[in-house]
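Entry 12.
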Amino acid sequence: QVQLVESGGGLVQAGGSLRLSCAASGSVSSIVSMGWYREPPGKYRDLVASITSGGRTNYADSVKGRFTISRDNAKNTMYLQMNSLKPEDTAVYYCNAKDRQNLMTFDNWGQGTQVTVSS
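Predicted 3D structure (tokens):
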């Protein structure tokens, strides 16, 4: 099992920047990919960006060119650098880690961190 703790959310004006962090512990050697999801008020949780253990990244179209996902494997920590923030980026952001055990893949979630972008 993998435990995830997010940090770095907050209130920022449109055009500003924030960096989210997600620290992983537990069975980190079994993690195959990590990602950031967000859940705007009254909407579903959607993928923002993901990164595999090999470093391959994927981004939602709405954040391409503005957000950057990265990992520091030595610290078991994932980051999301968010630049040029827009009010529509307001959401609870969740860290996700997919770990594979016995040919099965499990989803692990952090507690979420609020990001609010004011216009």
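Annotation: Residues 4 and 22 are 6 Å apart (CA to CA). The chain has no helices and eleven strands.
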